[in-house]
Design brief:
Low-confidence stretches of chain B: none
Strand content of chain B: under 5%
Number of domains of chain B: 1
Number of helices of chain B: 7
Helix content of chain B: over 70%
Number of strands of chain C: 2
Shape of chain C: globular
Mean pLDDT of chain C: 85
Distance between the termini of chain B: 60 Å
Radius of gyration of chain B: 18 Å
Shape of chain B: globular
Largest interface: B-C, 47 and 49 residues
Number of strands of chain B: 0
Order of helices and strands of chain B: HHHHHHH
Distance between the termini of chain C: 30 Å
Oligomer: heterotrimer
Largest sheet of chain C: 2 strands, antiparallel
Largest sheet of chain B: none
Chains: A mainly alpha (314), B mainly alpha (220), C mainly alpha (483)
């Protein structure tokens, strides 16, 4: 039992600490692909340290929500990171949320971010909040459909059971999972504000979705939010790996398999990060009113995956 | 339930076929549409050949070869040339916007799956579960036909419908008798030629292939 | 043996005319090929009357009394239409609406079209039936757009797309039929042979066959012109050249209905219920009523008669749907009468519109003055198609309505109302065309009106007296169809 709790804490801490590194790796790959030299992989850590040392400057019109939101967001992301099986399956926190509640946790973080963006009353904040809601309004049902497909195959909505079933079944090609994987990719791109839905490196406010919401934050609040964003990307990546490439995750209580699980996870994350960078480089950001189409396609693919499961795999 | 590997791949190809049908619905450019049609033909030929191999029905090899020759090579080449010669506007103009079309498409897929269930149960083939997908492809192609106002997308919708029907025949009964399939292929080929000639006539008279010009004959 | 002549001659004609159809004597060659086809058909008919139904060519072809009379009718109307088109197309060429190239296309497509229809009628294989129906459609698409006007292109496009969709649905119906048949007859070519299917029809799976029939009815029904899938018909008839309208109305609709009926026989045997017949009655009745009420609004003479075709085919479908010896007999008789009369009307109308240079009824007046034969031809044809005795159409309509009164009384008021409305509309529009005042001079040339009077004469004769062998023949066919 205590070993479990230790493992849980270790996994959560690992996630929190590794997330900025994943961000750095993605930026590094992008720079390679674009033929320029990148800042070192540890640059995000330096940014965070710099931000923590600064003094926070907060507008007069800010309410207590403004100050509270970054902590809330970070806490949600940390919880999500702790629940999703990264190296070990079925840890003590897992019963805290099944996949549906996981979607709810993400939604909670998003709500707080949007409210905080509108809190000050600037037009860019509201702009960002509205756009973010447009994107997520379509992304959430799609994500739920993806999870439904996975849970229909494994007959449960509990993440540990899903991962265990998918990891240990004999290798069968599930077309429904193939569709769900593509849909999941599109959704995670939208939710994490990557190209082709949103450009994370843009400076032009009118093209921002996510960045516009955090324009007013500074110092430790901004640091927490940036960390939470990195953590969200990490969690989505690990979630995708757990659902679609689950081989290598240690089963519950299997300490001996931990080192292998760790190595496998790092390898998969490296590959995933590189793939993300590659796809970002070859696509362009879509116009804002094409974003619903993009997400509509993701929803469609997810629903198709579910229907195909009923037709071909029952 | 564990299927043999080739049948799993057939299922995967069937899912791919459905995906391509949806992609055709959401495609904005005519050349992209033709490419997707070629891919659909390729997936169809591959799945037919695979079914033929796994069930020892040799006539399916001939059907697959015919599909490959006609629908992957000959017809897309013909359409590419047509598009170039006619020098037409490259955009497909759907009559209802694309997200709505996709939603209607999903409803049609559910309808098709339901319709196919009783028939699948009666079938004796190993590929019977893909009958629902075949029907869905037919209905989606039909949707594409009626929501497009340009000539070439309508024709591609028609040919995609024929692809779906061919796949339905393969999945429900291991294909129709070869002579019938040859006849059908011949008809489709002649149909495409007739259409080519027809497009030139339309272009000569209307200077465009937008079918909105051809809505004058209504009930007065 | 005759069957190979029957099918080979139109096909050879098509190829021959594709190469030499632009020469001066092409219309005569066309008529000659049609005559040869008619002779082959006559020989075939004679053999069937003597020997009864037979399978030819190792089971590939099957001729019984149902399709042999359609074969004879098709060959006959094809021949008379070829005769009519001879001077008609020459005059069109003189007026500048056509050139030699297009005439070449016209002549060769004409022969191929006839060949495809004859193949559809004589084949034993339901799959080949489908293939030849599609081939017949394709042969006529380019014919409808022959004049290259915007309206004719639109009509041809609509024709192609609507009939294409219909035929795709019919293909699905055929696939389902094969699916049901394969269980009993085994896979391979024999599972689609109608004779074999007819033998085992009670063993075929009912659910699959009922679904198959729905698709086959909707699919082939589009080509019959059943409402609500009829919208290609008025356009195609109005915009195509008159000979094409004549063969479409007189022949293609019949062949499509033949395909439906072959399927119906199988489905009736498998289901044992009246579903197929009820569906056909519903579609038929709907077509009759819809067409009758739409006739009133027509201003184009060919469109009006096209709607009349929809109405009559609806009536025939209704009669076949009712089933039983009398109704089937009446339907078969009506098929013949309608073919002959409608093609005769189109011949007369063709000359009238050619002379007047327009198809609008308001612009054609006083035909009886400018050319009495033409005027009388049109008048007689119109009253024949409207079901006035002693023409044959009256006899068949009478039989249909009395059977309806007997078995389905609820339908009779609708039928009578529709027929009455159609009568009033058509007669009211044709009468000024024939008897109105006009200042136009007489026609400079002699129109080819022999076919008109030939057809009308036959219709009149059959209305007064059906020769016993013909009556026996119809009765046999009616019995085959489930009488």
């Amino acid at each position: 039992m205590s070993a479990g709790i230790l493992l849980q804490l270790a996994q959560t801490l690992l996630a929190i600490l590794l997330a900025p590194l994943l961000m750095g790796w993605v930026n590094q790959c992008r720079a390679w692909l674009q033929g320029r030299s990148a800042p070192p992989i540890t640059q995000p850590y330096r940014t965070l340290r710099k931000l923590f040392h600064k003094d926070a400057v907060i507008a007069h019109t800010a309410s207590p929500l403004f100050r509270f939101a970054p902590y809330m967001i970070f806490a949600c992301m940390a919880l999500a990171a702790g629940i999703v099986p990264t190296v070990v399956n079925d840890l003590p926190f897992s019963p805290a949320a099944d996949v549906i509640a996981l979607v709810g946790i993400f939604a909670l973080a998003r709500v707080f971010l949007a409210l905080a963006a509108m809190d000050i009353g600037t037009s860019f904040g509201t702009l960002g909040a509205r756009r973010e809601m447009l994107v997520s309004f379509l992304a959430e049902p799609a994500l739920l459909m993806v999870f439904f497909t996975a849970s229909l195959i494994s007959q449960s909505t509990e993440l540990p059971i899903i991962v265990q079933t998918l990891a240990h079944k004999e290798f069968v090609i599930y077309p429904s999972l193939a569709f769900a994987a593509v849909a999941f990719w599109m959704i995670s791109v939208a939710e994490n504000a990557r190209i082709p839905v949103d450009n994370p490196t843009t400076h032009l406010e009118l093209t921002m979705i996510h960045e516009a919401m955090i324009l007013e934050y500074s110092a430790r609040h901004l640091a927490l939010i940036e960390w939470a964003v990195a953590l969200k990307l990490f969690t989505y990546s690990v979630l995708g790996i757990a659902l679609f490439l689950p081989w290598g995750i240690a089963a519950q209580g299997d300490i001996a398999a931990l080192p292998l699980a760790l190595v496998v996870m790092i390898a998969k994350l490296l590959l995933g990060g590189a793939a993300l960078a590659f796809l970002e480089t070859i696509s362009a950001k879509v116009r804002l009113f094409r974003a619903p189409e993009f997400l509509g396609t993701a929803f469609l693919l997810a629903v198709l995956g579910m229907l195909i499961h009923f037709l071909l795999e029952v | 339930m564990s299927l043999t590997y080739h049948l799993q791949i057939v299922n995967l190809l069937a899912a791919l076929l459905l995906l391509i049908s949806f992609a055709m619905l959401s495609q904005r450019r005519i050349t992209g549409l033709i490419t997707l049609f070629a891919w659909q033909g390729a997936a169809l030929a591959a799945s037919t050949a695979l079914v033929g191999w796994s069930t020892d029905q040799h006539h399916l090899y001939y059907s697959a070869a015919l599909t490959l020759a006609l629908k992957v090579i000959a017809m897309p080449w013909f359409f590419y040339r047509l598009v170039k010669k006619l020098d037409m506007d490259r955009e497909v103009e759907p009559m209802i916007n694309i997200p709505t079309t996709m939603l209607i498409g999903i409803v049609l897929v559910i309808f098709a799956f339901n319709l196919a269930l009783p028939i699948s149960e009666l079938s004796g083939t190993v590929t019977r579960s893909t009958l629902g997908i075949a029907l869905a492809c037919v209905l989606l192609a039909f949707l594409m036909m009626i929501t497009r106002s340009k000539a070439i997308p309508q024709v591609i919708g028609f040919l995609a419908m024929e692809n779906g029907l061919f796949f339905a025949a393969t999945s429900a009964t291991y294909g129709m008798p070869l002579v019938v399939e040859l006849g059908v292929a011949l008809d489709v080929l002649i149909g495409v030629f007739v259409l080519g000639i027809f497009f030139f006539q339309i272009r000569e008279t209307f200077d465009s292939l937008d079918l909105k010009h051809m809505e004058k004959l209504k009930e007065r | 043996m005759e069957i190979y002549w029957l099918l080979g001659i139109p096909l050879t004609g098509g190829i021959f005319l594709a190469l030499w159809g632009c020469r001066k004597h092409a219309p005569e060659i066309n008529a000659l090929f049609s005559l040869a086809t008619l002779l082959a058909a006559a020989l075939l008919t004679h053999r069937i009357i003597e020997q009864g139904p037979m399978m030819v060519g190792a089971g590939w072809f099957f001729i019984d009394s149902f399709n042999v009379f359609l074969v004879a009718l098709t060959a006959f109307v094809a021949f008379t239409t070829a005769l009519f088109s001879r001077p008609y197309m020459r005059i069109e060429e003189e007026h500048g609406k056509l050139n030699a190239q297009r005439l070449r296309l016209y002549h060769s497509s004409y022969q191929i079209f006839i060949g495809a229809m004859l193949l559809a009628l004589t084949t034993n294989n339901m799959g080949i039936l489908w293939v030849s129906m599609e081939a017949a459609t394709l042969a006529t698409v380019l014919l409808v757009s022959l004049y290259r006007t915007p309206a004719s292109l639109e009509a041809a496009w609509k024709y192609f797309i609507l009939c294409g969709v219909g035929i795709a649905l019919a293909l699905f119906g055929t696939i389902l039929l094969y699916f049901a048949a394969e269980k009993i007859l085994g896979s391979g070519g024999t599972a689609l042979l109608w004779t074999h299917l007819n033998g085992v029809k009670t063993q075929l799976e009912p659910t699959v066959l009922s679904l198959a029939f729905v698709f086959l009815l909707v699919g082939y029904g589009t080509k019959v012109g059943l409402a609500p899938l009829h919208s290609w018909l008025p356009d195609a008839h109005a915009e195509g050249p008159t000979p094409v309208s004549a063969v479409l109305s007189g022949l293609l609709l019949n062949v499509a209905l033949y395909a439906v009926m072959r399927s119906k026989v199988l489905v009736d045997g498998a289901l044992g219920s009246e579903m197929a017949g009820n569906l056909m009655m519903g579609f038929g009745l709907f077509s009759v009523v819809l067409a009758a009420f739409l006739i009133k609004r027509q201003t184009d003479v060919k469109r009006m008669f096209a709607y009349s075709s929809i109405e009559h085919m609806g009536l025939i479908t209704f009669a076949f749907g009712m089933g039983g010896a009398v109704a089937n007999f009446a339907a078969l008789l009506h098929m013949t009468m309608h073919s002959l009369t409608k093609s005769a009307i189109f011949f007369a109308v063709g000359h009238a519109t050619q002379k007047a240079g327009t198809q609008l009824m308001s612009s054609i007046r006083g035909l009886i003055q400018t050319n009495p034969t033409l005027g009388w031809g049109l008048m007689l044809g119109t009253i024949a198609i409207l079901g006035v005795p002693p023409f044959g159409v009256f006899a068949s309509e009478f039989l249909i309505i009395t059977t309806a009164m007997h078995e389905h009384p609820w339908a009779t008021p609708l039928l009578l109302l529709a027929l009455g409305v159609a009568f009033a509309s058509i007669f009211g529009k044709v009468q000024p065309m024939v008897f109105g005042e006009t200042e136009l001079p007489k026609l400079p040339y002699q129109p080819a009106l022999t076919p008109v009077f030939l057809h009308l004469g036959l219709v009149l004769m059959l209305g007064l007296f059906i020769p016993p062998y013909l009556a026996a023949w119809y009765k046999q066919a009616a019995h085959l169809l489930g009488g």
